[in-house]
Known about the structure:
Elements: E1 12-17, E2 23-27, E3 42-45, E4 53-54, H1 61-73, H2 80-87, E5 96-129, E6 135-162, H3 169-175, E7 184-185, E8 195-198, H4 203-226, E9 231-260, E10 263-270, E11 276-277, H5 284-304
Parallel strand pairs: 4-9, 5-8
Antiparallel strand pairs: 1-2, 1-3, 2-8, 4-7, 5-6, 5-9, 9-10, 10-11
Helix pairs in contact: 1-2
Amino acid sequence: xxxxxxxxxxxxxxxxxxxxxxxxxxxxxxxxxxxxxxxxxxxxxxxxxxxxxxxxxxxxxxxxxxxxxxxxxxxxxxxxxxxxxxxxxxxxxxxxxxxxxxxxxxxxxxxxxxxxxxxxxxxxxxxxxxxxxxxxxxxxxxxxxxxxxxxxxxxxxxxxxxxxxxxxxxxxxxxxxxxxxxxxxxxxxxxxxxxxxxxxxxxxxxxxxxxxxxxxxxxxxxxxxxxxxxxxxxxxxxxxxxxxxxxxxxxxxxxxxxxxxxxxxxxxxxxxxxxxxxxxxxxxxxxxxxxxxxxxxxxxxxxxxxxxx
Length: 309
């Protein structure tokens, strides 16, 4: 009987983009030579990075390509040339590249001291007479306000914070959280065929963003789950967030980069459910025509109303 041998997947080789500065990983010694984000040349570095897990792609490049085509074809404000290109199928699947984007996943707790004005509704019956002299009873709402203060504690699991300096905060927010239930242990050999960006933001910067977003979550939880009454006005909120454990996890994103009128643009396709993130280019001609039509409509309405004669 043969015994299976667990082989060491080897080190993670790192390369950095000479243009946008993104850092990429690959199973040594195979390292991509072009940046997935902007297409510029990569420069080998000696750094090694610790990646804990990765979320695999759930949709293929072909499916992502179809989602991208539909996204562009349905963009009514996009230039007609772009929409025709999408509808005609001339967008080549090769232009859509798979990227594994680094996120830091936190477990955290919060302790918040708060002061608030609490509004409690109560109802009374009010009887009046209608124009026929008939008694009509209605319920009238009244609100009484009270001062309150206290301490609220919370715990958070699997909080996502993007560690890429290339992916914008708006793009990360639109992508939303990923399902970590399907994450697998990281193995550099799983990078075959995909680009893999290493964390390029400093740990202090990502930790700071995590604390700030967790404070906002704690405030929302306070207002919706902790405070009594029907109305709330939080006048004081001092929240301390403690970050406990963290994992570095690579998340799947399909990236389409293209140039339009000399500007580099990109649209992302979520690697799990296929939602598109990013606005197609906007046609200046369409915007001008729409503005002119709106102005003509306003003039017509004013003329019909007798404002202008």
